[in-house]
Amino acid sequence: MASIVRVVQIDEATYRDRDGEVERSQPYVVETTGPVTDLQIRRSGLIPRYRDPHPQGDSIVSEVEIGERRGYVRATSGIYDVTVRYTSDEASVPEEEDPTSRPTVTSMRSEKVRVRTVLDADGQPMLNTAGDLIEEEVDETHYVFHARRNFAALPRWIEDYADAVNIDDVRIRGFTWRAGHVRMEGISLPGELVWENGVPYIPFEWTARYRPRRPWNEPLLNRGFHELDAQLLEDAFTSGQDPADFRVLKPITIGDPEELITEPAWLDENGVAFRDAEGRVRVPRPEEIILLPRKRHLELPFRVLPW
Known about the structure:
The chain is mainly beta. It is built from three helices and 22 strands. The protein is elongated and about 105 Å long.
């Protein structure tokens, strides 16, 4: 690891205004054995740190500015220009507060989104009087949360929570939002660390979206062009064998002569098309329709996140 070889102090510049306030600018040249970070230079103990007093006792450090690596003493070395600024106006220099200790700031806005759906406001399939499925475009109001917080390092949870949905109720902005309705969206962060009060941090931002009317993991309709062979399943039940060993697919047909269906048919809990007493494929009653729970988005606890 590169280390600091020496620090050369250059002539200090002092300014005094009409009110007697003192401003000082003290340049340094830092020689290293190779590239080093701002943090290594600031914490080396070889240059004054934030709010350190000036040797004359009339001012304190208000800022430590570190320039880019600008030159080489040897092929493996580096030179950095450092400027330490002092002020006698101590009230203008904040206490060394850790910016990562500040709470999350979360803003909120509503957004209209047009989506295609086959489910009504109660989460049930929309059917016409003949039992055909209706697909419509509807406007949904979503609430978008924009959260900002300072982190000392990139939080590890950002990978796991990409597009994840809350498995639990989560409290944001003093209100409890229902499980399954909040989905994590994008993140934003700068390319470099930010320094404040001598502390480096990452100003990290993320967004989440609340869908009030329906959950993000919507159920699937139990429909298809194939069904399980009902006769084989019945034979398995009758003989006491495991029906799982007799799950044989066959295409669903209608008419005489039989023809393949051109629209998916509704299936019952056994994966068999609904039929009437004469074996013809029929439209199920609304209470017979089966919705299959499906997890399109990973479900994770959101209450553990720093909202």
